[in-house]
């Protein structure tokens, strides 16, 4: 790949697909994106010749990818839970494993339920839930203005009703609450995919992670600090029998279950992702005895 040279003009789409420097899937994605052609059109127009301008544009895109920039940022989109979502360098790229959080949330949300997505990023989780369950009153928060703009755009694109709020975790939810009193519990579900990578982890300097927002990846500590904040504050907002569900690292399930148990959550458990790794843990707030 280091000896990649410019894509020449006047070659056919079929030749461009074969000679481009990535695997066939990524070649097809980038060429289709640049030329605004669907997969079917790439086949039916396979003998079409590239213009000089198109060849130059494709060369620039392939060089960006060869330098490591994620495909999702180059094309500006990623599919999640059957929805095409806008992504920018302001947000994490949604991963298929995070769809597990959506599935578990949908299973636990009652009709007309109220849910909160903490650290929403692209809005992937909140938008997927609200799109699938229009009856749910969905709120999503993030501390990043850039992320909230992307999330709001994704909600509008798919007609999902989500109330977005700029907040450093629970901070904005406490505005107007008498400090001498606890906030009134009103949520049936809190869901989150927070930063959980340990500071200094070698993966932060590898692959797509090099290009993603560092504050959405790591807590700059032991990987559990954001999870602790979410767990410690959840009981003030969850109704009895309300659920807290969180994504975490491949080796953090036992620690997260322990944190949940220490805070009095019931039915504490972990669920496996597509690779068979315990990726989501959660529990239910018990009713007062």
From TrEMBL:
<feature type="binding site">
    <location>
        <position position="193"/>
    </location>
    <ligand>
        <name>S-adenosyl-L-methionine</name>
    </ligand>
</feature>
<dbReference type="InterPro" id="IPR007848">
    <property type="entry name" value="Small_mtfrase_dom"/>
</dbReference>
<feature type="binding site">
    <location>
        <begin position="193"/>
        <end position="196"/>
    </location>
    <ligand>
        <name>substrate</name>
    </ligand>
</feature>
<keyword id="KW-0808">Transferase</keyword>
<dbReference type="GO" id="GO:0102559">
    <property type="term" value="F:peptide chain release factor N(5)-glutamine methyltransferase activity"/>
</dbReference>
<dbReference type="InterPro" id="IPR004556">
    <property type="entry name" value="HemK-like"/>
</dbReference>
<keyword id="KW-0489">Methyltransferase</keyword>
<dbReference type="InterPro" id="IPR050320">
    <property type="entry name" value="N5-glutamine_MTase"/>
</dbReference>
<feature type="binding site">
    <location>
        <position position="169"/>
    </location>
    <ligand>
        <name>S-adenosyl-L-methionine</name>
    </ligand>
</feature>
<feature type="domain" description="Release factor glutamine methyltransferase N-terminal">
    <location>
        <begin position="15"/>
        <end position="76"/>
    </location>
</feature>
<comment type="similarity">
    <text>Belongs to the protein N5-glutamine methyltransferase family. PrmC subfamily.</text>
</comment>
<feature type="domain" description="Methyltransferase small">
    <location>
        <begin position="99"/>
        <end position="200"/>
    </location>
</feature>
<dbReference type="Pfam" id="PF17827">
    <property type="entry name" value="PrmC_N"/>
</dbReference>
<keyword id="KW-0949">S-adenosyl-L-methionine</keyword>
<dbReference type="InterPro" id="IPR002052">
    <property type="entry name" value="DNA_methylase_N6_adenine_CS"/>
</dbReference>
<dbReference type="Pfam" id="PF05175">
    <property type="entry name" value="MTS"/>
</dbReference>
<dbReference type="GO" id="GO:0032259">
    <property type="term" value="P:methylation"/>
</dbReference>
<protein>
    <recommendedName>
        <fullName>Release factor glutamine methyltransferase</fullName>
        <ecNumber>2.1.1.297</ecNumber>
    </recommendedName>
</protein>
<feature type="binding site">
    <location>
        <begin position="119"/>
        <end position="123"/>
    </location>
    <ligand>
        <name>S-adenosyl-L-methionine</name>
    </ligand>
</feature>
<comment type="function">
    <text>Methylates the class 1 translation termination release factors RF1/PrfA and RF2/PrfB on the glutamine residue of the universally conserved GGQ motif.</text>
</comment>
<dbReference type="InterPro" id="IPR019874">
    <property type="entry name" value="RF_methyltr_PrmC"/>
</dbReference>
<feature type="binding site">
    <location>
        <position position="142"/>
    </location>
    <ligand>
        <name>S-adenosyl-L-methionine</name>
    </ligand>
</feature>
<dbReference type="InterPro" id="IPR029063">
    <property type="entry name" value="SAM-dependent_MTases_sf"/>
</dbReference>
<dbReference type="InterPro" id="IPR040758">
    <property type="entry name" value="PrmC_N"/>
</dbReference>
């Amino acid at each position: 790949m280091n000896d990649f040279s410019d894509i020449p003009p006047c070659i056919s789409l079929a030749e461009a697909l074969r000679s481009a420097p990535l695997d066939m899937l990524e070649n097809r994605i980038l060429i289709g994106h640049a030329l605004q052609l669907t997969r079917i059109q790439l086949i039916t127009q396979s003998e079409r010749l590239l213009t000089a301008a198109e060849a130059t544009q494709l060369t620039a895109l392939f060089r960006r990818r060869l330098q490591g920039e994620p495909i999702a940022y180059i094309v500006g989109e990623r599919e999640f839970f059957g929805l095409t979502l806008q992504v920018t360098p302001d947000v994490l790229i949604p991963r298929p494993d995070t769809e597990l959080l959506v599935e578990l949330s949908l299973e636990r949300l009652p009709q007309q339920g109220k849910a909160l997505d903490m650290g929403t990023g692209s809005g992937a989780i909140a938008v997927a839930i609200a799109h699938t369950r229009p009856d749910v009153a969905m709120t999503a928060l993030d501390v990043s203005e850039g992320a909230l703009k992307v999330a709001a755009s994704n909600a509008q694109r798919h007609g999902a009703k989500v109330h977005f709020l700029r907040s450093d975790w629970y901070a904005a939810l406490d505005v107007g609450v008498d400090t001498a009193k606890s906030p009134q519990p009103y949520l049936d579900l809190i869901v989150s995919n927070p930063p959980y990578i340990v500071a200094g982890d070698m993966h932060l300097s590898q692959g797509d992670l090099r290009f993603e927002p560092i504050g959405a990846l790591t807590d700059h500590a032991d990987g559990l600090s954001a999870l602790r904040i979410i767990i410690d504050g959840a009981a003030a907002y969850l109704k009895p029998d309300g659920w807290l569900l969180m994504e975490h690292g491949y080796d953090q399930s036992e620690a997260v279950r322990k944190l949940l148990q220490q805070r009095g959550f019931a039915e504490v458990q972990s669920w496996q992702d597509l690779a068979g790794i315990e990726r989501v843990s959660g529990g239910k707030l018990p009713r007062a005895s």
